[in-house]
Amino acid sequence: MLQNLVVVLLVAGSALYAGWSLMPAGLRRALALRALRWPLPAWAARPLQRATAPVTGCGACGGCEGAPPPKKTPAVQTVTFHRRKR
To answer: Which residues make Cβ contacts (< 8 Å) with residue 65, sequence separation at least 6?
Structure first.
């Protein structure tokens, strides 16, 4: 009985997480704003507050603020041709 309860809780939690992460950003933001109206503990409100933050960049991730700068490539690149061995 206890094992079944644990499995049900794990599967339900996994389904909620997958649904939340695959949900469109607009719908996620709207649901987070509605959920923040409830009295939630701090550990539950923190991810919802992050979801309501303004989206930077393309919206595919948390933003570009923490990303390392792109590597600079030289303006001139050398192309080397190798003879084919026969």
So the answer is: 56
Looking at residue 76, the DSSP 8-state letter turns out to be S
Helices 25-35 and 42-52, packing angle to 10 deg = 140
Q: Which tokens sit at 24?
A: 């469109």
H or E element that contains 47: helix 42-52
State which amino acid sits at residue 7: V
Can you give the residue ranges of every domain in the chain?
2-52
Closest listed residue to residue 37, CA positions, set 49, 27, 25: 49
- How many other CB atoms are found less than 10 A from the CB of residue 51? 19
- pTM across the whole model: 0.55
Model pLDDT for residues 38-69, shown as the tens digit of each residue: 898 988 888 888 888 876 666 556 566 667 77
Nearest to 56 by CA among 72, 69, 45, 67: 67
